[in-house]
Structure formats: structure tokens, C-alpha cells
Design goal:
- With about 550 residues, this protein is mainly beta.
- It folds into 3 domains: about 220 residues, no CATH class; about 180 residues, no CATH class; about 120 residues, Roll (Mannose-Binding Protein A, Chain A).
- It is about 5% helix and about 45% strand.
- It has 3 helices and 45 strands.
- Strands 2, 3, 4, 5, 6, 7, 9, 10 and 45 form a 9-stranded mixed sheet that branches. Strands 1, 37, 38, 39, 40, 41, 42 and 43 form an 8-stranded mixed sheet that branches. Strands 8, 11, 12, 13, 14, 15, 16 and 17 form an 8-stranded antiparallel sheet that branches.
- A hairpin with a 4-residue loop joins β4 and β5.
- The protein starts with a strand and ends with a strand.
Amino acid sequence: MLTVLFTILMFGQGLSMDSRGTSFITAFPENIAVFYKKTTNLLKITTLHPNTTVNITYMATGSINTTRYIKNGTILTVTLKKDAEEYHFDSSNKSVQITSDKNITVLSVSGWQERFQSRVVQPEQHLGTVYQVPALNYTKIAASLSLLTTSAVKFLPFRLMIINAVDRNNSVTIKQVDERGQSQADTITLGPYNLFQIEINETVREINSTAKVAVLLTHPCFETVSCSCNMVVNQLKPSAFDKIPDTFLVPSIFSAKQLLLTTNQSCSVCQGLTSNCILVQNSTILPLYWNFISTTVHVSLHLISPGLILDLIPTSMFSGCYLLGFNSLRSGALVIANTSSTVGVRLNDQPLPSTITWSVINGTEYSWALVEAQEIGTIWHPTSKIGVYMIERLESDSIYGSPAIAINMNPDGNGCLVTPETFLLGQDEMSWFMSRQYCLENADQLARVVANTSVSRMAFNTTLQESKEGWIGLRRNLYTTEWYWKNEDDFPSTVKFTYWERGHPENPEKGLCASISLDPSKKFKWKSAGCCTKKKPVCYLSIKYFTYRDTVTP
């Protein structure tokens, strides 16, 4: 067993920041957007680390599909039948659970032919127990978007799908407001991984549960301007009580007319100039007349236009790297970057093509550009955080899409970081030679400390261990007695930095190997020691970057 001593990078929580995880729960809402033509329901699961085991369980049948030891960068495509879509308004077991032994990402795809709705499935750590539900009335939205052709048209209401994310009963309270403005609450009990679907029409305001749930806002047939419709589905964010201001950017490509704002606290919403502000007390729909919006507290904000409900990424949740997964040739990526750093945006391992055109978002320091689709890839920046959306086009050129899959919040100059530099401590004491073998089997190699910064990183969050010393990868050459790093990779073995305890290293006959103090009060100093004495191995996991490989269907 290993104990983590220190990890350089701490990944943030929250939607649109880091979509990696080892446990996911989702379901497929009803899709009648093509008027009962044959639809496609897919899960695209991307592995980020080598030798990953993935389990996919469809709860309705209890069937488990296990794929073992998959290479990193592999996409597993799982196809579910039409009957996996849930159209009943009742309790159901039509959920899908995805688990793995290492971090993965999950993309849910619904559609037909060249019409697809993609949605990032958020890992369990991003789920919550309290959700604010936007007050939505489809007839009013359709009228405001000029979709109503006759007053005789009756529109289906929006739907809410609540999915139990735990393997036990979960009590869920649905808080509503009736036509007279009176509050009421209904409580249901969901079995392990079961779901419950309800219709909402401005009445449901909040979901509370005793354990984590996932909540999907969906509509089976959201009207477009071309006398057709598109299914929409959006995973709601758990309620946040942060008093942190947010800024949202709206590129003109969407031609949106309205904003759907969801909050559980009063806030000021400004569009463009700070003088264009209004006070909002709760969830509401606002007209959109500027390309950037600022709020005084953390909120959830969506664009609404024909066929589209798009979850906007606030600039505070921009990330360093995104994973893309496209479904048709009419797809692409919308990239938002600081205008001064657009030249740094990378597509996989190359700069963006020189033919890419950047458009300034007026009144801001940001610009946006469209990047043509590739089946899979990454868009990242070495020094700046960016925002990326996956975009699809309908036959009428209506645009819809969703935020891309964020796999690294912080920029890194070498690519999409998925494993930061980590020091690990073995539980058992052993010789230097056995420690080296142990680290090769359980990590990458014995630890190396090549600068003062490495010492500081190891010291951070490290507590006094029962064993006072541990082995590192430093030892003497048997012929010259010179010290060198026993590296298992291409890193230079030459010792350019030393951190010896006073009186060390001792003469070669007293020790050919090096240990490190595990006591923070002794500042992690080194000592020379006999290689056959027993100490705990201090192992090292090197930095790893995402690399796309291939696609398989389990």
C-alpha cells in the first residue's frame, strides 16, 4: 500500500472545471425531436491512464459490461437501445452507472443521422443534494422566440429527471409553488440508482435530497426556426452559496435572445456597462442584449434560443485543457481565449491552423474562434485558461452544443496534464534494492529530488511518519564512488543539487545509497546509508499527459 506524500496540482471541484472521475451515473431522457424516427443513444468513455478497467451497468437489466486494461487515450463507445430512453413520469431503474479504477471522462450523446445532442456527464464528486430549478414555461419561451405560429399550438412542458447517485434509498423532496403562489413539498424515496421523472411548468423550484443525486433538465422536442425541433438536455449544477462575482461571455455565433439565470440568492446582473444592471431575487429569464454578463454572486447561466439551451462557462471556470468528442462533419469547437494570447492555443500537439479567424468580443479582453471538427482531440493553452464548447449544426444551420470536457483546470506548457508529479511512501521497510523494485511495480521509480522546489513540494502537507527515514533513488557508482540518480527514464543522472544532513555523506564504506528524513522538523535532509539496511521506499510518479490512441466498442 502507498501513502501520498504530496501532489503538486490540486484539481478544483465544480462543473466545467474538471470532468474526470471514477464514478458516474446518468440516464437517457425521451427524444422525439425527429418525430419518432430511429434515434441513437451513446456513451463515449475516454480513458486517461494506461491499464484502466471500466464497468458499465444498465440498471434496468442489471447487465454489467467490463472492459479491462485499456490503453490511455482510448474511447469506449457504448450503444443503448431506444427503450433505454425514459418517457414515464414515475420511478424507474433506467439509469446507467459507469465506474473505473482510474480517472475517465464520460460523454452522453443522443440524436439521429447528423443531428446530435452531446452532454458531459459529471462525475459523482460534482453532484450535490440541493438544486435550484429554473422557472420554465415552454409556451412563454416559444412566444418570446417567435416560434408560435398559432395560438392553438400546445407545447409539451419541460421535464426534470432526478437520479439517485448512491447504492441505498434516498429521500428526495420536491419543493413547488402552486398557481396561487403557495409553497408545497412532495417527498419521494428513490431506491439505489433509481430515477424519478416529473414535468415542470414554472412550479418546481428546488430539489433537496438526503444523499447525492444527478438532476437533468430536458425537453423531448424544443422548437427550432425551421419548423422542426431538437431534443435538449442539460445537467443542473448543485446550488452554490458563493458570494463570488462571475463573468460570462456570449459569442455572436449563437444569436441567442434570452438568458436563463438560476440562483438561490439575490444578485445584481449587469450586461455590458455596469450601468446596465438589474436586481434579481431568484431564478428568472432575462432578455439578452449584450455579449458579456457579470453577476455579483455565483450563478448558473444558460443561453436560450431556438433548439438550444446552452450552459455557459463563467470565466472563473475556464480551464487549461479540454477533450473534444464530435459526432458529425457539421461539428466544431468554439474557443474563447484572452485576445493577447490567442496565438498560444493548441489543437492536439500543433498550433491552430493559420486560417482560423479570431473575432473580438466587444468591450472585453477576449476573442473567439471556430475550429473544424476532428473525431477526437484536445484544445489547450500552455499559459492561459480558455473556454471551449463543442458545437453542432442542424440542417437549417441552427447552432447548438455544450461545454467541452475539461480534463485539466490549470494550463501546462507541455500539454494536457492528467497526472501531476507525486511522491508516494511504501508501508513496509526494505532494502534499497527491494525498494527500487517496489517502486517500479507500484509507481514509476524511486524518488528523485533535483532542486529546492522539489524539497518544498515533498514537504507540503507531509506529516511525521512512524519510519524516520526512507530510500530515494540516489546512490554511488561502485567504481568511482560518485553519486548519481538511478533514473528509469531519460532524465539526466548527473547530481547537480544536494541536500545533505551535516556530516553526510559519510565515507563510501559506510554507505553507497542515500536516504531522506521523513521528519519535517529535520527539513527532509539526506543521509548516506548502507544499501541493505531497511527503510521505507519513497516512490515517484512522474508527470503524465493525455495522448489519444484509438477507439473501441466493448
